[in-house]
Design goal:
Blueprint lengths: L6 H17 L15 H17 L18 H13 L8 H14 L2 H12 L5 E4 L15 E5 L2 E8 L10 E7 L10 E7 L5 E6 L8 E12 L3 E2 L5 H13 L4 H20 L6 H29 L8 H23 L20 H11 L9 H12 L9
């Protein structure tokens, strides 16, 4: 594992820090700022910010320059994530497109798809969402039932997707669709690109426990999709989807570690404000979470080292998904423990805290959110099976 940064990466970090200091509004980093905004206002601010970031050369850090990126290394991209988190810059409004679809299109897309998709995505001209989960198909993607019937040069898409992140604000969706009804399970799927402004598309927001509608359900009725908008080849959707998911599971978690570590420090501050820092069980729980976060940091550095050496993580990428999701969820289990019986009540914590105020509303929303992270992107149960069977070589219990 290499714990040092080469000179060009250190220079890049200084450049990014200087740009963030000059361009990021100070008010945005203040506790409670984002929770005071409506969902649409928050989205618009974040979308405009990310466009400015891309135009300044700080988007698509590790993308080839021919696609509008910077042509940097994976280490530069991971360091950029960490620096953005450190500065409390807004999170991306286009993570599914940038993290999943973009590298997939670069790898298996047609020249026309690369030209038409990548640059508009980087500038946030087009926001993407992912259409995998269905009412009867969650982690088992092989059971997808949304179908695409061939009609000349198009497909007519019928069906429903659910738990679709950013459905309200997305312009387009990359979706697994069953284009060969005669084929079974994984063999009859294709990855189609669907314009959500097309006739026959209906988006319904799903209001969450936190009060926001980050998810939605999407209905398709005779939605016309050009056959040219199939990524990875007709009937090859399963392999394309596995490639797509591998980019998320195998990514370095440096940005996540930075975010999680700041949340940890805030939770410690909450414990002090409530006098819970003297409780031995709370102290033990906080110590455990800190150890888990530092293990995540070193694993993220290990992943970066492997990627920089040109090694394919393969099925071992599931370890990263397991580690960060479990550590993140566990961190907010401890947050709930700190609040105790008052977890659902308001506290005037803005009057306390060494940092001059605590954004308890944001922490509560984050706590609600963490319940989902061990499900989406491949549930923890599935990731453990992959690690056991494909990495450790243990017997397949389903066949035993």
């Amino acid at each position: 594992m290499d714990l040092t940064y080469p000179p060009e990466v250190a220079d890049f970090r200084r450049e990014l820090r200087a740009w963030l200091a000059a361009e990021l509004p100070a008010a945005w980093a203040a506790p409670g700022f984002w929770t005071t905004l409506g969902e649409d206002e928050s989205f618009d601010l974040r979308r405009g910010w990310e466009r400015r970031k891309a135009l300044a050369g700080f988007g698509g850090i590790d993308w080839p320059t021919e696609y509008g990126g910077r042509g940097g290394s994976p280490t530069m991209a991971a360091l950029a994530d960490a620096e953005l988190a450190r500065a409390r810059a807004p999170r991306s409004v286009n993570p599914l497109g940038l993290t999943f679809l973009a590298p997939t299109v670069m790898a298996v897309g047609t020249p026309e798809q690369k030209t038409g998709i990548l640059a508009p995505m980087l500038r946030n001209d087009v926001i993407w969402c992912q259409g995998f989960s269905e009412p009867e198909s969650g982690s088992d993607l092989g059971s997808v039932r949304t179908r695409g019937e061939r009609d000349g040069d198009d497909f007519l898409v019928h069906g429903q997707k659910v738990w679709t992140t950013s459905a309200r604000h997305a312009d387009r969706m990359f979706a697994l669709v069953r284009t060969d009804p005669a084929a079974s399970r994984h063999r009859g799927l294709s990855l189609l690109l669907i314009d959500l402004r097309s006739p026959g598309v209906e988006v319904r927001p799903i209001r969450q426990l936190s009060g926001i509608s980050e998810f939605g359900e999407v209905f398709f009725t005779d939605v016309r999709v050009p056959a040219a908008d199939c990524v990875g080849g007709l009937g090859n959707g399963w392999a394309t989807a596995m490639l797509l998911l591998s980019f998320e599971r195998g990514a370095s978690a440096m940005g996540q570690y930075t975010d999680f570590r700041r949340a940890y420090d805030q939770i410690v501050e909450v414990a002090r404000a409530l006098g819970r820092d003297r409780d031995p069980s709370v102290r033990q729980s906080l110590a455990r979470r800190l150890v888990e976060l530092e293990c995540l940091r070193y694993h993220a550095l290990h992943v970066l080292t492997e990627v920089e050496r040109g090694r394919d993580l393969g099925f071992a990428s599931s370890v990263t998904k397991l580690q960060w999701s479990q550590a993140y969820q566990g961190l907010f289990d401890t947050f709930d423990e700190v609040l105790g019986a008052d977890v659902g009540l308001d506290h005037p914590l803005g009057e306390f805290g060494e940092s001059g105020g605590l954004d308890l509303t944001a922490l509560r929303r984050e706590s609600f959110w963490t319940r989902s992270v061990t499900i989406w992107g491949g549930s923890s149960q599935i990731q453990r099976s992959i690690v056991a069977e494909r990495v450790l070589g243990l017997p397949n219990s389903r066949l035993a």
